[in-house]
Each structure stands twice: as structure tokens, then as C-alpha cells.
Design a protein that fits this description.
This protein has ten helices and 14 strands. The chain is α/β, with parallel strands linked by helices.
Length: 309
């Protein structure tokens, strides 16, 4: 998939999926599948139009913490959309473009859209003035097909990025993973820590959680660590490590499977599978080590590492 950071004129007629697609949950996936199939059936170039940064974050709105880094989001767009091209443009550069200008000048005029796909709650244009009805009307005026996908529901509630964020904050990670159809992932470079885990005989690897990233409920999780394409069973603590007077939010993971090699400086993906317990302060490292060993024993009895999505 070719990635463009600005809008370029397209000669080949396009079929375009519109949205931010944070998390690439099952609702997004259904939209992408529809776009991909329509593009194939009508010999159109499958494309995605998105923003490089969250409009909510740029406008200072409350729901601004991301479920994915930009790199993760682009990877999942490529994986699920089958798009040949993705336009990930600067929101601030286009925030004052009206709904009509966006549809007529950008989508139809420059990107040569012959069909567009978006979710039922899609808004666009200056001050989010455009909605799906306006998009459909503008497209119809120019002979362009507009397809509005219905909401995907699970347990009687619409699947949305907001709902996934709520579940992750509540520690309901298994439920969040069902809506994502894959484990929630934290990616980052392994940093040097205080090596307290090593002192306890339970060595850990440490990853920082970016400031603009969703923070899961503090506590202990069953997890997988993906290193160079190989998954290892692991146990992860998300939190501030109160027993050792930590102050920054950290993702700290102990690998359960046999592993050898140097991880410092490597970019590693940690997948959260199951919430076991809340983070607690212990009197000393020996009490903490005893609890971690108990957590490992309890989690090992669960069938969380073999569940597929």
C-alpha cells in the first residue's frame, strides 16, 4: 500500500473508504471489506482517506487518547482494506475546508472518487458540518455512489472506538479484544529499568506508554510478547509500580516461555489477553515476588494463551 501524506491528483478512478479508523474494530473491518469487494467488482482503485493525527486530539476534545500509534493504524488499514493507496493527511491543514469543498473538490475533483464508503456516524468538513445525508446528496449530484455502512452491534451495543476505550480503561480486556477481533497491543522500544524484577528472580522488560495512548486499567494481565515475529507467553503489569515508588506509567512484562537474547533497544509488541488483578502496593520486594508467582500460577491454569480471534 502506498502512503501519501497529502492529496495528489489521481488519474485512475477510485473507491474510497473514509474515516479515522482508530483501533480497526469489527465495524471498521466490515466497512473495509465492503469497499474492497466493490472496488474489485467495479475495477476501481481501492483507497483510504484518513488523517495523520486524531481530529479530537487536535481540537482538544476529551476522547483523544489513541487505541493505536500512527504506525499501527496504517498497518491495520493496509491489512484489512486491501487498499492500494492511503491518504493520511494533516487535519489542521484541512480543518476549515467546507463539507461541499471536501466532497466536490477533494474526493471527486482530485482523488477521482467514483464510490465512497463511510460509517453511519461519519462527519466531515469545517466544524463537522457534513453528515452522511449531506455526503450522499453531494455524491449523487456528481454521479458518485455513496455507501453508508450500518452499525455493527455486540451484546446489544454499537461497536465503536469509544466503547473499546471504555472497556480497556475498565480492565475488561477480553471484551475489548472481542470487538477488535484481535488482542489489544502496546508497542514500544524496550528500555532499561531498575532491574528489581531480576533481583526477585523474575526478570522483566519495560516499555513506556506514550502520553497520547490509551492507558489500560492498572493491574496484572496475561499477555503475549511478540519478538521478531515469535510470540512468547508472558505476564504484564500496567501501572506506576507503587511498591518501588514508581511515578511514570509503565508496561512491565515477564516472559514465561524459554527465551534468550538481548531485548534492550528492540521494538516489541505486547498483547494483553486477560485482566487478573489490580495493581497493589506491597511492603517489600519479597511480598511482591510471592504475589507475582501466585499470579503466574493462577493465569497458567486459564486457557487464555490459546484463544483465537
Amino acid at each position: 500500500m502506498e502512503l501519501f501524506y497529502d492529496i495528489t491528483h489521481q488519474e485512475k478512478p477510485c473507491c474510497i473508504a473514509l474515516g479515522f479508523f482508530d483501533g480497526m474494530h469489527t465495524g471498521h473491518q466490515r466497512l473495509m471489506l465492503s469497499m474492497k469487494e466493490y472496488a474489485r467488482e467495479n475495477s476501481l482503485c481501492p483507497c483510504v482517506f484518513t488523517f495523520s493525527d486524531s481530529p479530537c486530539a487536535m481540537l482538544g476534545k476529551s476522547e483523544s487518547r489513541a487505541l493505536q500509534t500512527f504506525e499501527q493504524r496504517i498497518d491495520t488499514i493496509s491489512e484489512y482494506s486491501g487498499a492500494e493507496k492511503c491518504f493520511a493527511v494533516d487535519f489542521m491543514k484541512y480543518k476549515d475546508v467546507t463539507a461541499a469543498e471536501f466532497a466536490e473538490d477533494i474526493l471527486i475533483g482530485k482523488l477521482n472518487a467514483r464510490a465512497v464508503f463511510c460509517g453511519f456516524n461519519f462527519h466531515f468538513g469545517k466544524n463537522a458540518e457534513g453528515n452522511t445525508a449531506i455526503l450522499s446528496e453531494l455524491c449523487k449530484k456528481h454521479g458518485v455512489s455513496a455507501f453508508i455502512t450500518d452499525p455493527v452491534c455486540s451484546d446489544g451495543e454499537t461497536v465503536s472506538s469509544t466503547r473499546v476505550r471504555r472497556l480497556i480503561r475498565e480492565g475488561r480486556i477480553a471484551a475489548a479484544n472481542e470487538l477488535l477481533a484481535r488482542p489489544f497491543r502496546i508497542e514500544g522500544v524496550i528500555m532499561h529499568g531498575r532491574k528489581n524484577g531480576r533481583k526477585m528472580g523474575i526478570p522483566t522488560v519495560n516499555q513506556a506508554i506514550p502520553d497520547d495512548f490509551i492507558v489500560p486499567r492498572f493491574g496484572v494481565y496475561a499477555s503475549h510478547v511478540n519478538v521478531d515475529g515469535t510470540k512468547y507467553r508472558s505476564i504484564t503489569n500496567i501501572g506506576t509500580r507503587p511498591t518501588v515508588n514508581g511515578n511514570s506509567i509503565n508496561c512491565e512484562t515477564h516472559i514465561l516461555d524459554k527465551f534468550s537474547g538481548e531485548l534492550y533497544g528492540k521494538n516489541v509488541c505486547t498483547e494483553l489477553l486477560w485482566f487478573e488483578r489490580d495493581e497493589r502496593r506491597f511492603n517489600d520486594l519479597s511480598q511482591l515476588a510471592e504475589q507475582i508467582r501466585c499470579d503466574i500460577e493462577n493465569i497458567s491454569k486459564l486457557d487464555v494463551y490459546n484463544r483465537g480471534f
